[in-house]
Amino acid sequence: MHIAFRRRRALFMFFLLTGLAVASWVTRTPAIRDQLGVSLAEMGLILFSISIGAMSGILSSGKLVQRWGTRSVIRSGMLLLLAGLGILAIGLSSAVALIAAFGLMLFGLGIGVGEIALNVEGAEVERITQRPALAMLHAGFSLGTFLGGLVGIGLASIAFPVSWHIALTALLGLPVTLWALQAIPQGVGVETRKAPDERETNSTSFRPWQDYQLLCIGLIVLGMALAEGAATDWIPILMVDEHQFSQATGSMVYTGFAGMMALGRFSGHYFLTRFSRTAVVRASALLGVIGISTVIFAADPYLAAAAVLFWGLGTALGFPLAISAAGDTGPHPTARVSVVATAGYIAFLAGPPLLGFIGEHFSLRQALLVVLLFMGLAVFLARAVSPRPDRLSY
Question: How does it sit in the membrane (predicted)?
Fold first, then answer.
């Protein structure tokens, strides 16, 4: 049990560091846009560089885990993430958008490579301990974004150079990464090599597109991840451009979103011990629908800012609970977790830049109608996360 605790603590720190790194540049996106001198569409292209890196990492991460194990993949992902932040800082200090975009591409690659491995490792900890873990681990990400948001607000309010802010985040993250890696065991997720005929039999036994329940879980993850990603990338700019808040206030609103996500995930165990997983996911999606729809349609900027809190609370538990559901609702749990997590992270990272292109031609508020549609779909598909009777139930 002590070993399992050390693993959970290390995984929590990795999620925390990732959230802190994301918030470090998200809260400064208005300043980054101004320093690089780019338009909304050009900012969308810069954000799309994250998606290019992230999708490359996501699509390769499952195979990398099977070949090298979660520990090696987590280490590579975190080091790429920190290196990307360092290059982003160089691009900002020199005001060269291409360098900044390359840094964000490496940043996205690190997230894509590392996050799938972190979820596979977290699902393995759940299997060993027979207790929910992923909600609390994802709470680490939300706590990181909340703390990073507070730092971003403070530094933005004193006009601290954004390039130094990003660089210091990368430097501080390195010793944390090296320390936490010590608690992650070797070999988790590695698949032994099989004979050709056995590989053929095994490869045809798992067809995710033929598993209706898994497809529904994937759609829930897609909606929740898109809602979280849209908030992460666009809330500060949305509050500044659409609701006429200052940059510091826009960062504060995003920090409120992150704080509510952290609150929701830290309280997840309380609700899961009292209500079914289906009820928790459905209630979460309903809160998300209320929050996002209010942000879109409210004329009062303060009402829209308050609605962001419901947006954060509504998206808090859907992603980790759907990942847990993927692992305990059928055979091949590692493959199922990898498939669903991949869908989620693609939505989280690739969706927001596409919203930016829609926002350039219409508005960011109108672009959020896409997010609202998928969040509404999650309300109706929530039953898919119900565990099978012979498997872990919480």
Answer: Multi-pass membrane protein
Which tokens belong to 328?
A: 């305990």
Question: What pLDDT does residue 392 have?
Answer: 42
Domain ranges for the chain, please list them: 2-188+208-385
For residue 84, give the amino acid letter: G
Q: Is residue 351 within 8 Å of 226, Cβ to Cβ?
A: yes
With tokens 């039953």, the residue in question is 383
Helix, strand, coil % (nearest 5) of the chain?
85, 0, 15
d(CA 140, CA 134): 10
pLDDT reported for residue 209:
67
- Convert the pLDDT of each residue in 281-301 to its tens digit: 999 999 999 999 999 999 899
390 pLDDT band (50/70/90 cuts)? very low
Query: Going by C-beta distance under 8 Å and a sequence separation of 6 or more, which residues neighbour residue 175?
Result: none
CB-CB contact of 44 with 357 (8 Å): yes
- Residue 120, number of CB atoms within 10 A of its CB: 27
One CATH from 3.10.290.10, 1.20.1250.20, 3.40.50.2000, 1.10.10.10 for 2-188+208-385:
1.20.1250.20
Distance CA 247, CA 230 (A): 18
Burial of 93 (0-12, 13-18, 19+ CB in 10 A): middle
Q: What secondary structure, in 3-state letters, does 362-387 show? A: CCHHHHHHHHHHHHHHHHHHHHHHCC
Model pTM score: 0.76
- pLDDT tens profile 310-334: 999 999 999 889 888 887 766 677 7
Q: Cα–chain-centroid distance for residue 140? A: 11
CA proximity to 354, closest of 254, 220, 221, 233 = 233
Question: Is the Cα dihedral 291, 292, 293, 299 positive or negative?
Answer: positive
